[in-house]
Amino acid sequence: MKKRVLSGIRATGRLHLGNYLGAVKGMLALQDDPNFETFYMVADAHTITTPYNIEELRRNRREVILDYLAAGLDPEKSVIFQQSEISEHFELAFYLSSVTTIAKMQHLPTFKEKVKQYPEHSTMALLNYPVLMAADILLYKGDQVPVGIDQEPHLEVAREIARRMNQDYGTDFPEPTRFATEGEYVPSLTGEGKMSKSVEGSFINLTDTLDEIKAKIAKIPTDSGVGTLDQNFDPPREGPLFGVIRFVELFQGKEKAKEYKDLYVSTGIRYGDLKQELSEAIFNELQPIQDKRRELEQNPEYVNKIIAEGAQKARTAAQQTISEVKEKMGLK
Ligand code: ATP
Ligand code: MG
After folding, report:
1. What is the pLDDT of residues 290-332, one digit of tens each?
2. In ligand 1, which atom is closest to the CA atom of 19?
3. Which end of the chain has fewer beta carbons closer than 10 Å to its terminal beta carbon, N or C?
4. CB neighbours (10 Å) of residue 132?
5. How far apart, in whole angstroms, are the C-alpha atoms of residue 120 and residue 123?
6. Residues 99, 168: Cα–Cα separation, whole Å
7. Which residues pair with 9 in a beta bridge?
């Protein structure tokens, strides 16, 4: 049997470079590998774990699907669907919560960060986020999970839950592993933390124009352009030079990044020129995605059909797992 793959993106906005490099690139690689069966969803139910606007959620569910298709997810090769349409996700999440302790969930860094971001919204849904994510993956017996490095703690939880379920109930869940890409961590444009849909000013969307990209890149904080580097240029994930150099590495290659690092320790980097070239390199990569998206926007019926067919295929796989789990847990 082919190994299964599951990944998803929250419906909190259009996709940005972090989502593309950290998640979608991995999703594409596995979609094109005949050894895998790939399930890719818009994680709309995960959106309600933090404060949201109803109309925006409705719109963003669609935006994520359009971005997926524009970026190259292929409904002939992958099951593309909306999480909330498959109620088995919530059913399995409840079953899995019976082998998950509250203490473990409260101590996750991802939980603590979101509580810091939204102190008034420390809800059960937020606490349950990793359990729902484990359910997303295990429902399809997911083996590989193409997601960014920020999701590693959640994958660890999913593995623990899979082990517990297998031990206590004799299920046959694989222990899912993260399928990593080169862009597993794309920094925020603000110079602090990672690029995130829900952090204003942190991101470049796949749909941004060259002018928008230039304006955003111009705002990345930089230093004087001259200084010292430690030997391996292995600084923390923060700081003025790290951000721009990381973007250069990702969009113009390691060689180019090395040139800048050499300049940094000799005559100095002219950030104006660097940012101009970098903006163009980013736009060049995005242009074909934007062309494809415009085509898709002209064809809403086609997109509706993909979503409907995706739901059907996902449901079939989901029902199979739920039936097995109920049997093993004594609910059938
Ligand atoms: P939100 O702020 O709403 O949480 P987000 O930008 O963090 O949005 P998610 O929907 O949470 O995006 O994550 C979707 C996928 O994109 C996940 O696989 C996640 O690991 C990946 N991802 C998110 N941000 C980055 C980033 N800055 N670099 C690399 N991968 C990322
Ligand atoms: Mg996130």
Report:
1. 999 999 999 999 999 999 999 999 999 999 999 999 999 999 9
2. 16
3. N
4. 22
5. 9
6. 9
7. 42
Which of 17, 19, 116, 118 to probe ligand 1 with, by most ligand atoms within 8 A of CB? 19
Q: Take atom 6 of ligand 1 and give the residue whose Cα is closest.
A: 196
CB-based burial of residue 306 (10 Å sphere; 0-12 exposed, 13-18 middle, 19+ buried)?
buried
Which ligand sits closest to the CA of 15? 1
In the numeric block, which tokens belong to residue 194?
């990672």
Is residue 18 pLDDT above 80, yes or no? yes
By residue count, the chain amounts to 332
**Ligand nearest to the Cα of 151, by number:** 1
Question: Rounded to the nearest whole angstrom, what is the distance from the C-alpha of residue 200 to the centroid of ligand 2?
Answer: 13
pLDDT in tens, 135-166: 999 999 999 999 999 999 999 999 999 999 99
Ligand 1: centre distance to CA 246 (Å):
17
Structure tokens at 16: 């940005």
- Which atom belonging to ligand 1 lies closest to the Cα atom of 149? 20
Q: In 3D, which of 86, 174, 184, 77 has the Cα closest to residue 136?
A: 86
Ligand 1 touching residue 197 (CB < 6 A)? yes
Put simply, whether the predicted model's pTM sits higher than 0.85 gets the answer: yes
The CA 196 to ligand 2 mean position distance, Å, reads 6
